[in-house]
Amino acid sequence: MSIQWKGVMPAVTTKFTDNDTLDLEMFQINIDAQLDAGVHGIVLGGTLGEASTLLDEEKRKLTQFTVDNVKGKVPVLMNVAEQSTKGAIAAAQKAEEDGASGLMMLPPMRYKAGDRETVEYFKAVANNTSLPIMVYNNPVDYKVEVTLEMFDELLKCDNIEAVKESTRDISNVTRIKNNFGNRLKIMTGVDTVALESLLMGADGWIAGLVCAFPRETVAIYELQKAGRIQEAIEIYRWFLPLLELDINPKLVQNIKLAEVYTGIGTENVRAPRLPLFGEERTHVINVIESSLKNRPTLPDYKNI
């Protein structure tokens, strides 16, 4: 499946049982909720998916299960976050074998690669898979920035098609458009600047709180796309306290707790992560409960 880099693509959480195995039953409930809300793709094994704690066979099982479940309705992307170029190539090839439609790729893990090293890393993977690639540019969390000059070189690879833009600098959307036009599609990757980025020309949204609130997230995208900006803003303003749970070191625990409240997830995380407790837990519950009390009535956004 070729990928239309647009719309809302949830970076889904990985569901675990009480015995710390994959909870595919609850995972399916969440995926079904995402599809019913009208998402445009599914991203597996990202930060929210607890990729750093997943075994290789678990990643493969998640990919195969999701591809079988989605049945071609939307593209399924697997994240590649590896320490070596050799490992990244192998991960990309396994994702392709397992039926993934595309890849989201981080720079090398642990080692802070220089510009030339980062470019060569991405190019090596691109040259060893036929899957389309979205480069995840998040210098705030991963300490490596993929600059415009680096993209000049990367875009020589035809299958590097998109960027998950997470620099937190909204003006970077305009810089990318000015430099590359439609050659490099932009998927905004930070929930708290998502609507602003879309209004400045981003093509889509790799979202976090969508895991618990899929309909509200897709409604914001569809409304702004249709030019119904004020309606989108009103939902977004309601959403913002929840979206801020995504820009926090405990984003996985925060969002999984929100999923519990909306009935499409559990709190189970994989150690060393632990469920929220104490003041942190109280704060997050207050945000969720307050937001649910004022949950907006959505327009028929699917038929705009």
TrEMBL record:
Q: Where is the signal peptide?
A: none
Q: Name one Pfam family in it.
A: DHDPS
Any one GO MF annotation of this record: N-acetylneuraminate lyase activity
Which residues are in coiled coils?
none
Question: Keywords in UniProt for this one?
Answer: Lyase
Q: Does the keyword Ribonucleoprotein apply?
A: no
Enzyme Commission code(s) on record: 4.1.3.3, 4.2.1.41, 4.3.3.7
InterPro entries found in the cross-reference section: Aldolase_TIM, DapA-like
Family indicated by similarity: Belongs to the DapA family.
Task: Quote the protein name from its UniProt record.
Answer: Dihydrodipicolinate synthase family protein
Q: Which organism is it from?
A: Asprobacillus argus
